[in-house]
Amino acid sequence: MLKNSSLTKLEGRKNLLAFSGGVDSSALFFILLQNKIKFDIAIVNYNTRAQSVQELEYAKELAKSNNLICHHLNTEMIEKSFEAQARKIRYEFFEKLISQYSYDNLITAHHLGDRFEWMLMQFCKGAGCAELAGMETIQKRENYTLIRPVLHLDKQELRNFLNLNKIKYFEDESNYDENIKRNYFRHNYSTPLLKKYLNGIKKSFEYLDEDKSALIQEIPLQKAAEFVYFKPQNTRANIFAIDKYLKSQRYILSAHERELLKSEKSLVVGRKFIVNQRDDFVFIAPFVKQDKMTKEFKEKMRILKVEPKLRGYLFKNKDASNLVIQLLS
Question: In sequence order, what are the residues at sequence separation of 6 or more whose Cβ sits closer than 8 angstroms to the Cβ of residue 308?
Answer without folding.
Answer: 301
